Amino acid sequence: MQSFLLRCISLLMAVLLQMHCAMAEADLARLNYLTEDYPPFNYSEDGQLKGISVDMLIAAAAKSGYIITPGQIKIMPWTRAYHQAMQGPDTVLFSTVRTPEREELFNWVGPISPVRVVLLARKKDAIVINQPGELAQYSIGVMRDAIGEVLLKSMGMESNLYRITNTASMVRMLQRGRVELWAYEDTVARWFTRREGLNFDDFEVVYLLQQSELYYAFSKDVPQPLLQSLQSGLDALKQTDDLGHSEWQNIRDLYLQQPPQESTSQK
Question: Which residues belong to the signal peptide in this entry (predicted)?
């Protein structure tokens, strides 16, 4: 009996030691950070990764005593990044709109910023949409696995959706009338349109799909203490001073008040 108890105690101590070692190795800087070209939240300009979500990630981690650099963040097509984040391990995907459909796929830290997911059209087409049931008569461009597709599929849309993985190409499809509507985040759509050298005044928002918020989406295997550390750092960024200013708002203003660079490619 005594021998059995000793074996049980030894096993318990081994398990506790393993858990302690795992926690000691837990570090925000060791995670795999994935993002896409989604200005002004995350994008590459002149070979440098930047944006609201990038700067907030680095600043929030620093608040919690961790060092993350832009060089640790990989930028890749959204569909590949999205599926890689779901599979893990130790992966963080941003910027990700949090929805009921995605809720159980990830663990979440945020919010980073409020967003508006809208349908855009060419002004000259004079499209008016008063209710969701009218959407089925239009061809709608969506980014595969992005929030626009998620929302429209939840509304019963399928056969009228045109999926693509390159946002710049989607902008041109709308411009040329190859699709009648484009489902995307309002601010990001404006950046892409201008970056492609087009006049956003030629387009207009014709329907609001959802007002939501962006988050950092963690693969389910990431230890909760790391999520809590980043959440605490992000919350600290949002603390206001006596004048009502916060580091969170300063980061947003830095990007929302500057125009995007135009593309030099000919399309």
Answer: 1-24
Q: Is-contact 63 233, C-beta < 8 A? A: yes
145 touches 97 (CB < 8 A): no
Rounded Cα distance, 165 and 154, in Å: 20
Each residue's pLDDT tens digit, 162-194: 999 899 999 999 999 999 999 999 999 999 999
Reported as a single tens digit per residue, the pLDDT across 67-92 is: 999 999 999 999 999 999 999 999 99
Q: What does DSSP assign to residue 174?
A: H
What are the b/e assignments for 179-217, b being 16+ CB within 10 Å?
bbbbbbbebbbbbbbbbbebeeeebbebbebbebebbbb
Residue 95 · residue 42 · CB < 8 Å: yes
Find out whether 161 and 140 touch, Cβ atoms under 8 Å.
Answer: yes
Contacts of residue 80, defined as CB under 8 A and 6 or more positions apart, other chains included, come to none
Position 118, amino acid: V
Catalogue all structural domains in the chain, each as residue range(s) with its CATH number.
29-114+213-256 (3.40.190.10), 116-212 (3.40.190.10)
